Amino acid sequence: MGYHHVAVDDIDPEPDRPSTQRSVSGATGLERLAAHVYEVEPGEEIPLAYHYHDEQEEVFYVVEGRLHVETSEGEFAVPAGDAFVCEPESPQFAFVPEDGEATTAFVVGAPAVDDVHPHDPDES
């Protein structure tokens, strides 16, 4: 058995990200689940690019603020207390617009695989 009590503010942010990403899974050594806390300021995004995953399922739980997610089906505005789910092969791009408010989101993806592919919405 193994347990971890994690003080998220004590996790160093991942370098070279468009917003502040703190990896809970990285700090605890989880291997089958990717879990991150994002602090996203207006005009920032969570991913490095509009993308999709082959196998990974993702859940974006908005802790505070409002997260926008651009998809092939349109843009969704997800308020605090709600979650947004992306199934595999579903293109998505999560961000906070320039006129939005600072947002915190807890994002979980499983399995924890590197199966990300860029998506060009103009080619859909």
Automatic annotation (TrEMBL):
<protein>
    <submittedName>
        <fullName>Cupin domain-containing protein</fullName>
    </submittedName>
</protein>
<feature type="region of interest" description="Disordered">
    <location>
        <begin position="1"/>
        <end position="28"/>
    </location>
</feature>
<dbReference type="InterPro" id="IPR014710">
    <property type="entry name" value="RmlC-like_jellyroll"/>
</dbReference>
<dbReference type="InterPro" id="IPR013096">
    <property type="entry name" value="Cupin_2"/>
</dbReference>
<feature type="domain" description="Cupin type-2">
    <location>
        <begin position="37"/>
        <end position="93"/>
    </location>
</feature>
<dbReference type="Pfam" id="PF07883">
    <property type="entry name" value="Cupin_2"/>
</dbReference>
<dbReference type="InterPro" id="IPR011051">
    <property type="entry name" value="RmlC_Cupin_sf"/>
</dbReference>
